Amino acid sequence: MSRENRDRTVSQDLYETLGVSRDADNDAIKKAYRRLARQLHPDVNPDPETQERFKDVTRAYEVLSDPEKRRMYDLGGDPFGGGAGGFGAGQGFSFTDIMDAFFGGQGAGGAAGAGRGPRPRMRRGQDALIRLEIDLAEAAFGTTRELKVDTAVLCTVCHGDGAAPGSSPVTCETCQGRGEVHHVQRSFLGEIRTMRPCAACRGYGSIIPEPCRECSGDGRVRSRRTLSVKIPAGVDTGTRVQLAEQGEVGPGGGPAGDLYVEIHVADHPVFVRQGSDLICNVTVPMTAAALGTSIELPTLEADLVPESSTDTDVETTVTLDIRAGTQSGSEVVLNGRGVPSLRGTGRGDIVVRIIVETPTRLDERQEELLRELAALRDEESPDGQVQAGHKSVFDRLRDAFGPR
Question: Do 237 and 366 lie in a common domain?
């Protein structure tokens, strides 16, 4: 710094330069510098007068943000004078502060929002995901399953700090515990100092001289354990059940993430699920469809009750009434016999599709009786009912674009 610039800066009140009171804390000083840096940066206002003011603001912040330099200034000393690393020795300012001003706390070489100082060894663990296949009845009515999961757990030897028993982390000599080191580069503004994570300690500010042999200094080990998970009624394929803090333990013994159990519902031999409804097909003979009948249809509850059970409170079957003259493809709805709602009340329905089976092999007597029935119904030589079918794609295109 030239003597002229140095004398001009010293003669100015640094608190007035930043526009803060003399008892302002570090946060207030930093906010004031950010505000002024946005207004005065050479990229925004390139005129020489503004550049000089920007330098004054930056020098004022360099002093007031450093506790030792600020104490010296408050006592009437010269914070710009002599001493290795002093501001006056190299006309330097922290480029990290300019990055903070424009990018909201993301300094050069740092992580967004990380701020200055060493990064913590203890961090939250990652979430974990496992997939669980269950039966349709279990998905409908809920169940409890025992799961074996393989995740990172807290190391019981070092209890998460990563150091061998009887030892402890020591302060990094390279960065003196700051977790960052300065990198100096010359520019038209003078010497620009950027902060970079310390390579010796990887930004932690401390080094573990004797890592724990059990976890190799990570503070966690992998282990298989058994968990009990409660599956609520009404889940479907793709539903995820969250188990808070049952995931991976974080590095350095940090808090565990969450464990998510993703449900896959196996195919059922009778029912196909559509939302809260259950769809099934029932095949009946032609005579039963014509005359009407009743059959016992098993419910989904039957899958949960053993065959040897004498429990009569659970309805394992329901009576399905097929009216006389039922046509193939018609549907019968059994209300409230489907799947319970996951986030509400009530249950869906069972929708039964009737398929009428036509006999393919007849003995002489059966054929004789059918011919007699056809004669009685005057159906010996039926003309059939011819109806318009679905139009093909080409027919629809022709109708749409053909001559009118």
Answer: no
Give 271-280 pLDDT, tens digit per residue.
999 999 999 9
Q: Does residue 250 share a domain with residue 212?
A: yes
Could you tell me if residue 382 is inside a domain? no
Count Cβ atoms below 10 Å from residue 60 Cβ, excluding itself: 26
Q: What is the number of domains present in the chain? A: 3
Nearest to 328 by CA among 291, 388, 286, 296: 286
Q: Is the pLDDT of residue 399 over 80?
A: no
Strands (E), 118-239: 128-134, 143-154, 170-171, 180-187, 190-197, 206-207, 220-231
Mean pLDDT, residues 305-334: 83
DSSP of 26-67, one letter per residue?
HHHHHHHHHHHHHHH-TTT--SHHHHHHHHHHHHHHHHHTSH
Shared-domain flag, residues 260 and 155: yes
Residue 163 shares a structural domain with residue 252: yes
Inter-residue contact 220 to 154 (CB < 8 Å):
yes
Note the pLDDT tens digit of each residue in 213-250.
999 999 999 999 999 999 999 999 999 999 999 999 99
Taking 3-state DSSP, the helix, strand and coil percentages for the chain, each rounded to the nearest 5, stand at 25, 25, 45
Relative to beta strand 92-94, strand 190-197 is parallel
- Whether residue 190 lies inside any domain: the answer is no
Q: Note the pLDDT tens digit of each residue in 362-382.
A: 999 999 999 999 899 888 877
CA 341 to chain centre: 24
Percent of the chain with pLDDT over 70: 78
Asked if pLDDT for residue 144 goes beyond 60, the answer is yes
- Domain containing residue 53: CATH number: 1.10.287.110
Q: Which domain holds residue 253?
A: 128-169+208-265
Whether 255 and 170 have beta carbons less than 8 Å apart is answered as no
